[in-house]
Amino acid sequence: MDFTDSPEEAAYRAKARAWLEENAPKYAVKRGAAMEDDESHDDMARGKAWQATKAAAGYAQITWPKEWGGAGGTPMQAVIFGQEEARFGVGFGYFTIGLGMCVPTVMAFADEATKTRFVGPALRGEEIWCQLFSEPSGGSDVAAARTRAVRDGDDWIINGQKVWTSGAHYSDFGIVLVRTNPDAPKHKGLTMFWIDMKSPGIEVRPIHQMSGGSNFNEVYFTDVRVKDSQRLGAVDDGWKVSLVTLMNERLAVGGGTGIDYSMILKLARELKTDQGTALGDQAFREKLADWYVQSEGLKFTRFRTMTALSRGQTPGPESSIGKIIAANQLQELSNAAVELEDQYGIIDDAELAPLSAAFQGGLLSAPGLRIAGGTDEILKNIIAERVLGLPGDIRVDKDVPFKDMPTGR
Ligand SMILES: Cc1cc2nc3c(=O)[nH]c(=O)nc-3n(C[C@H](O)[C@H](O)[C@H](O)COP(=O)(O)OP(=O)(O)OC[C@H]3O[C@@H](n4cnc5c(N)ncnc54)[C@H](O)[C@@H]3O)c2cc1C
Fold first, then answer.
1. In a mutational test of the pocket of ligand 1, which residue from 134, 147, 163, 394 has the highest number of ligand atoms less than 8 Å from its CB?
2. pLDDT tens-digit map of 132-191
3. Ligand 1 centroid vs 372 CA: distance in angstroms?
4. Catalytic residue among 9, 127, 135, 249
5. 250-259, 332-341, 344-353: segment of lowest average pLDDT
6. Would you say residue 52 lies in a domain?
7. Do residues 222 and 159 make contact, with C-beta atoms less than 8 angstroms apart?
8. Predicted pLDDT of residue 348
9. What is the C-alpha to C-alpha distance for residues 281 and 276, in angstroms, rounded to an integer?
10. Is there a single domain that holds both residue 12 and residue 74?
């Protein structure tokens, strides 16, 4: 395991930091507890302008080939830039799903004309994409999608419902996974399309979240027409296409949560309690020791992933460990910190609450983080099967035609 930058990595970090210091401050935003984009016109305009600035300098998608507007850089350079960028308050989330998952899928499966039409505008932040996979009947089990598409000449007609679609309400385009062959087993009758979110028959209904935001949506499809030329991959081969998207999702979700052990240590040191400070409380000190050990484990797991990237290897399924630990620790630390703040814990104003309401934000976003991009249980299954080599989960519906699967009705 390597703990320090190689000379090349250190030089890249210095270059990226200098560029960020010159360019990022004028786009920086101080966010409140919700830790989400505030989605006002101003925030979106600022996010788009920052994205365009990065694209012009080759920092928007560092690992993409130069011909598609990237820098042809290494995954390690992308990690370094991300670490440095995180210090400037320019973490706009509008483009993460599009550039991290949807557009790479389009790049892998679309024809040249489609790629030429979409890649540049997405990279420059001019168009936003969403991922329409989860449904009421299938989130962990994406292959159980019931939204169906039926062929009609050169078109397909889509009917059904998606749910939890982040950013659907402001997205221009999306990729949608639909059932095209109910006679085949569930993984073998799916097809993927790109879709214009303004198409007639698409209705987007925002879901109100406990954080106060409405970042994701229900999306209803009623006789929505798409051209066969919008298909990504072969008919009924959408599972293979979705694996490309999901593989990119795991890499995109694997970063830090913005809250770590040092922040609660600072709070425990500074906040006055009946015992003086929380640091003087024996029971709280024990908790701090546990979190410290966990944080060190998390840090070394991340170093392991970074070492693999630095050596040109692809991180394996063990990166799922980082996501489980980080999301659960975020929930525990935030909960303890908000309790420690007592009646002030309910103040989620970034100007008034300690550490810019980071813990209030953590408390509200941690449950979602434990679900998005693979729930705790699904990731534990991955670790059990693919890291530890334990026997696989029982999959009774693997070879059953989809139309014969029980629906509960
Ligand atoms: C913040 C956020 C953003 C999201 N954004 C998007 C998006 O943009 N696009 C999109 O398509 N989806 C999105 N999702 C949906 C997300 O992918 C699903 O919520 C997730 O995959 C879980 O699916 P589900 O909610 O249907 O739960 P279910 O799959 O119904 O799971 C319910 C419970 O059963 C457990 N469970 C399920 N299967 C197993 C098993 N085999 N073994 C053990 N336990 C199991 C789960 O762990 C969970 O506790 C988002 C979710 C969140 C929270």
1. 134
2. 999 998 889 999 999 999 999 999 999 999 999 999 999 999 999 999 999 999 999 999
3. 6
4. 249
5. 250-259
6. yes
7. yes
8. 81
9. 9
10. yes
Residue 33 pLDDT class (50, 70, 90 cuts): very low
Active site residue 39: no
Contacts of 207 (CB under 8 A, 6+ apart): 163, 164, 214, 216, 217, 218
The string over 305-327, giving b where at least 16 C-beta atoms fall within 10 Å of a residue's C-beta and e elsewhere, is: bbebbbeeeebeebbbbbbbebb
Per the structure, the complete domain to which residue 90 belongs is given by 7-94
Cβ atoms of residues 383 and 318 within 8 Å: yes
| Pocket of ligand 1 from Cβ distances under 6 Å | 97, 130-134, 139-141, 164-166, 216, 368, 371-372, 375, 377-378, 381, 393
Residue 196: CA count within 13 A, CB half-sphere: 10
Q: Are residues 136 and 197 in the same domain?
A: yes
Residue 110 covered by a domain: no
Hunting for tokens 């073998």 — which residue is that? 188
- For the CA of 168, the closest atom of ligand 1 is 8
Does the global pTM surpass 0.85?
Answer: yes
Distance, in Å, from the CA atom of 320 to the CA atom of 385, rounded to the nearest integer, reads: 12
Looking at ligand 1, which residue's alpha carbon is closest to its atom 39? 378
